[in-house]
Amino acid sequence: MGKPTGFMEFKREKMKEQPPLERIKNWNEYATRLTDEQLQTQGARCMDCGTPFCHMGIEIRGTAAGCPIQNVIPEWNDLVYKGNWKEALDRLHMTNNFPEFTGRVCPAPCEASCTLGITDPAVAIKSIERSIIDKGFENNWITPRIPANRTGLKVAIIGSGPAGLAAADQLNQLGHSVTVYERDDRAGGLLMYGIPNMKLEKEVVERRINLLRQEGIDFVLNTEIGKDISTEEIKENFDAVILCTGAQKQRELRIDGSNSEGVHLAMDYLTDVTKSLLNSNLTDGKAINVKGKDVIVIGGGDTGADCVATAIRQKARSVYQFGKHPMLPTTRMPDTPWPQDPNIYKLDYAYEEVEAVQGGDPREYLIQTKKIIADKNGHVKELHTIQMEKILGEDGFYYFNEIPGTEKIWPAKYVFVAIGFEGVEKTVPEQFGVKVQNNRIKASQTDFETNVPGIFAAGDARRGQSLVVWAIKEGRAVAANVHHYLEARVLK
Ligand code: FAD
Predict the structure, then answer these.
(1) Which tens digit of pLDDT belongs to each residue from 393-447?
(2) What is the pTM of this model?
(3) Beta carbons of 438 and 424 less than 8 angstroms apart
(4) For the chain: N or C, fewer Cβ within 10 A?
(5) Which of 292, 333, 46, 88 is nearest to 96 (CA)?
(6) Residue 106 alpha carbon to ligand 1 centre in Å
(7) Which domains are assigned to the chain?
(8) Can you tell me which atom of ligand 1 is nearest the CA of 187?
(9) Residue 178 CA, ligand 1 centroid: distance in Å
(10) Residue 463 CA to ligand 1 centre (angstroms)
């Protein structure tokens, strides 16, 4: 364990962040590492509590409690405390293929379940995780692991997000020949085009993909399965197929005026900006540019927050984010007890930034957009809204009612729609003859196989929009099942 009395002696310290007014001047990651000494002190805070809830990885009422990939957190906390960074890295890689992604973008359900969190601020697990892996790369401890033997069996993975990458990594290490197909021009799925650069620099994603390439995985980019290559051809040429196509079908806004110029789906905005940043440092003029304009993001979730942070970096004149839910409580409520995710109000990076620029949190709660009005050229000019109230009905369900007299008009030149995702795109499953249920590919959580033998599914495509850490978990699990399938049916 860490230092037996560490949790009483030391205070929690997490990664340092650049001040908001500084970091919005660039697109670089805003979180920076603590010193080795500070990190060892943070490792010392782990109590090795006997029954470490931080790594239990179960779902309670739809959200993760503890680490879904069962990272053996107390062990690497102890190793860091003792300065055994390389051993900590080995221990971390045992359960997590890509700690450099989760160490940057995971909402850290492990910290919400940390036993110390019952009475004190939780151990800074995410900061420690990120530092272990970053040190690993800096010290060249991470080198290509090229499998000594090949089985001669071929697996196609469709989609290169974290689920596809984790599955590819696992299967490649087992000696199978893996080809990952990706329709985009760069691999990584939402790690590349979705999560913005300031949260996860794209060199970090490329670094891992290059490593996987050196280890023998074949990446075929700019290739859409079902269009550029038929599903029949895939079935003929591979011994097993894994569908990791994500759940990127966005929910559209269907109100008057939503087809006006200047109204965009959030993902189109985020993708264009990242592409332009990577291709030309934003000089190619291909990204939507909101400089000097009034921006409204409709949708109160994390995708909306990423749009807010992007707009503020482009120097928008004003940025607001509309959500239909009330503000979250500032402390844990009785219905979200430890070790559940507390689901409390946070001033996320994007809101901190807008607060620094505009003097207030950009979020508007319990607000409904009734219509969008365009100018004579068809370009959005203003949004008409009304406030809502959330009422608990006698039947035990919540209802949203409009509050008369609260109508308001908001000027806007750009509107980004971030009201969620409808689920998996249907073309690929349909062409493979794979069943889709509730907008997800139907495949069991036990063996990840679809109704078509030899065709498996994992990640958001199977579970719906989720988190990077769940995608990694699913990628690892589907790989284990594909390996069993190949052993049982093909190698027999
Ligand atoms: P995806 O990452 O969606 O990858 C699917 C890939 O399949 C895509 O690259 C797609 O192009 C490809 N594909 C689809 N169809 C085909 C085809 N026919 N042929 C070839 N390729 C195809 N999670 C976090 O944990 N932390 C965060 O901070 C976070 N931020 C997010 C921000 C945004 C804006 C969004 C939208 C999501 C965020 N998430 C975050 C969620 C997380 O990114 C996803 O849960 C995760 O990426 C899902 O991984 P996946 O591999 O299942 O699918």
Answers:
(1) 999 999 999 999 999 999 999 999 999 999 999 999 999 999 999 999 999 989 9
(2) 0.96
(3) no
(4) C
(5) 88
(6) 14
(7) 6-138 (1.10.1060.10), 154-248+422-491 (3.50.50.60), 252-419 (3.50.50.60)
(8) 9
(9) 20
(10) 12
